[in-house]
Design a protein that fits this description.
- The complex is a heterodimer of chains A (307) and B (306).
- In chain A, 40% of the residues lie in helices and 18% in strands.
- With 307 residues, chain A is α/β, with parallel strands linked by helices.
- Chain A has one domain: 3-Layer(aba) Sandwich (Aldehyde Dehydrogenase, Chain A, domain 1).
- In chain A, the strands form three sheets. A five-stranded parallel sheet of chain A has the order 7-6-5-8-9, sandwiched between helices. A three-stranded antiparallel sheet of chain A has the order 3-4-10.
- The longest helix of chain A is centred in the middle third of the chain and has 21 residues, at 120-140.
- Chain B is an alpha/beta fold and 306 residues long.
- Chain B has a single domain, classed as TIM Barrel (Alpha-Beta Barrel), CATH 3.20.20.
- Chain B has helices at 5-10, 21-31, 38-50, 63-74, 96-103, 124-137, 148-152, 156-170, 187-199, 218-235, 250-263, 280-294, and strands at residues 52-55, 88-91, 109-114, 141-145, 174-178, 204-206, 240-242, 276-278.
- The longest helix of chain B has 18 residues, at 218-235.
- Chain B starts with a helix and ends in a 12-residue tail after the last helix.
- Classes of the chains: A alpha/beta (307), B alpha/beta (306).
- The A-B interface holds A 70, 73, 239, 242-245, 268-269 and B 296-302.
């Protein structure tokens, strides 16, 4: 990795104007990973320097390794049964709480997205979409089960019914294009359905992803339910799809070679691969209860009854 | 080895050295930073597998559960070639016969806990009787507990005599002495109890029953290994070591192996001289072995539950 260095970034500004003051040295945020409800540095010790449009370095970003991913899967597996057992009402409340926390820090997110190259209008739209999407999925929390469950007519004297259950662990590679709205759009439907998630942030917007982890961290979301890594798809994509303890993988990119290898790897333990590369993340078409159902298995129960 | 009479004379639990806790912790933190990769890692994982005392010590254990554990002990993961059987299966005395019959001819030993395990709160007659009974049922190894209350009250002679009597009752069976370090409070006590147990005739010294927290830890194991080393220098006799309880990951198991190699040396890197008392560790070792061979991280879903 040619750009990987361990220098301290010169200057981080997230809208508080620290760089303009000559008498005071700005306090810079260390962007780390988010694993198991904690903010560890990557075990590999590698960083890349993130630069703004003018070429000024604004932060050091962790380059996560496969071992960081492995630790995330362990955390996600540990958290999954408890999260799945939480009531639909409680899960909905927590996802709504994430939206509230994000709304409360909107200025910070807008400024940070602008530092990563967006115009002010585009940054506003990203944040609005992300908040609205969280509220949308919070609403579905106690409704998708009703919509997608069924009582099935059967020939024998059985009461036969089907209902959705979470798959387990979802490993997702977030869209490159929309650092916040895209990230939220892959996390929310998985989490609201009782899954736990490991997500690789956009390489273009890694800072937003880690700041979003701070939002998750203050939203009563149990540790390990969402784990966020920053790093490169090139290095990590194969582990996302071949880890035997992952139950579904999502790829929001469009690289055909990556998709093919993900499908092949997914066959190892018959995990479900999903490719969301063609989605326009800012449009309402990007949100749907079917995105929740992509990450659910259907369980059918036969219950004997008399006449 | 050095065996001059002076050091034999001076080596007694009555003058065990004091332990520098900060020094022990610093030494441990250095030993846990070694990097073991590729072929060395694979070899170490298999070695750890061969050193396992696969353990089930629950009041709800049944003959069926013990049989299942014995099968796992002999055939940990048949779909991969070259995985060794474990060293022993560790059960309560009333299940020794079942284990012995299932393991017949496999080379896997049967270890039984005895002497009113896990508390040891009974009289000597009952403890000796239980030991003889377990040996009669077919146990190759006896895991006894020391009387921690008496030890902490300073009645070292009582504890010494009890270990010696149980050793006698074992006959040809190996004796492992459980110090239950989680109840001994200080590393000084751990050292003294280790010295005492070895002098009373222990073939192995073992950290814990697994019923008390904290169970095995690296610092406690280091203190015990140093006692074993000093005892060996003084007498020329090798004593085995068994940390038990709380060792559930391969990473930790490899750190223990590094510690043995660096403290007592190569000779102890053998199932005759070192054991892990564990149950969940087996599957983690298997998952890591398969990961090393396939390059793919594994899931517990594809390994037998024991």
């Amino acid at each position: 990795m040619a750009t990987t260095k361990q220098n301290v970034a010169r200057n981080v500004t997230t809208g508080n104007g620290a760089e303009n003051s000559s008498s005071r040295i700005g306090v810079m945020k260390t962007y780390k990973l988010y694993i198991d409800g904690k903010f560890p540095r990557t075990e590999s010790g590698r960083y890349s320097i993130f630069t703004d449009a003018k070429g000024h370095s604004i932060a050091n970003v962790c380059v996560a390794s496969r071992k960081d991913f492995r630790e995330s899967v362990v955390a996600a597996r540990k958290a999954q049964p408890g999260w799945a057992a939480a009531s639909a009402y409680n899960k909905g409340q927590i996802v709504y709480r994430i939206a509230e926390m994000l709304e409360g820090r909107r200025d910070q997110f807008v400024a940070e997205l602008m530092h990563q190259g967006l115009s002010s209008a585009a940054a506003e739209l990203e944040v609005n979409t992300a908040v609205d999407r969280l509220v949308y999925y919070a609403g579905w929390s106690d409704k998708y089960q009703q919509v997608f469950s069924a009582v099935n007519p059967v020939a024998s004297s059985h009461f036969n019914f089907s209902l959705p259950e979470p798959m387990g662990i979802v490993a997702a590679i977030a869209p490159e294009s929309n650092g916040l709205a895209g990230l939220v759009s892959v996390i929310a439907p998985a989490v609201v359905g009782g899954n736990t998630v490991i997500v690789l942030a956009s390489e273009k917007f890694p800072l937003t992803a880690i700041t979003f982890a701070e939002v998750l961290h203050t939203s009563d979301l149990p540790a390990g339910v969402v784990n966020i890594l920053t790093g490169t798809q090139k290095e990590l994509a194969s582990y996302f799809s071949n880890h035997m303890d992952v139950n579904a993988c999502i790829y929001a990119g469009t690289n055909q070679v990556a998709m093919k290898s993900m499908e092949e790897n997914a066959a190892l333990n018959v995990k479900r691969p999903y490719f969301y590369g063609k989605t326009n993340w800012l449009s309402e078409d990007a949100q749907s209860p079917y995105r929740i159902m992509d990450l659910q298995e259907t369980k059918t129960t036969w219950h004997p009854i008399g006449q | 080895m050095m065996k001059d009479s002076h050091s034999v004379m001076s080596y007694s639990y009555l003058n065990s050295p004091a332990i520098d806790q900060v020094g022990v912790e610093e030494r441990v933190s250095r030993l846990t930073k070694r990097s073991i990769k590729k072929e060395s890692k694979l070899a170490a994982l298999k070695l750890a597998m061969s050193m396992l005392d696969l353990t089930t010590l629950e009041a709800r254990d049944t003959p069926g559960k013990v049989r299942q554990l014995c099968i796992k002990a002999m055939h940990p993961h048949e779909s991969v070639i070259g995985i060794p059987a474990v060293a022993a299966v560790c059960v309560y005395p009333n299940l020794v016969r079942v284990a012995k019959e299932t393991l017949q001819g496999s080379g896997v030993k049967v270890a039984a806990v005895a002497t009113a395990f896990p508390s040891g709160m009974s009289n000597r007659k009952v403890k000796l009787e239980e030991t003889r009974w377990a040996v009669n049922e077919g146990a190759d190894e006896i895991d006894m507990v020391i009387s921690r209350g008496r030890f902490l009250a300073g009645e070292y002679d009582f504890v010494f005599d009890e270990i010696a009597a149980v050793k006698d009752a074992c006959g040809t069976a190996h004796l492992k002495v459980i110090l239950e370090t989680g109840e001994l409070s200080t590393l000084d006590n751990v050292r003294k109890a280790s010295d005492l147990a070895m002098q009373a005739g222990a073939d192995f010294i073992k950290t814990s029953t697994g019923k008390i927290q904290p169970a095995a830890t690296l610092p406690v194991t280091l203190v015990m290994l140093e006692a074993i080393r000093d005892y060996y220098y003084a007498t020329g006799k090798m004593v085995g070591m068994k940390p038990a309880g709380g060792i559930s990951t391969s990473k930790l198991a490899l750190q223990y192996l590094v510690m043995i190699r660096e403290t007592v040396g190569q000779a102890w890197l053998h199932p005759d001289w070192f054991r892990f008392g564990a149950s969940a560790l087996a599957n983690d070792l298997l998952m890591q072995i398969v990961k090393e061979q396939t390059g793919v991280y594994q899931s517990i879903d594809y390994f037998s539950k024991d």
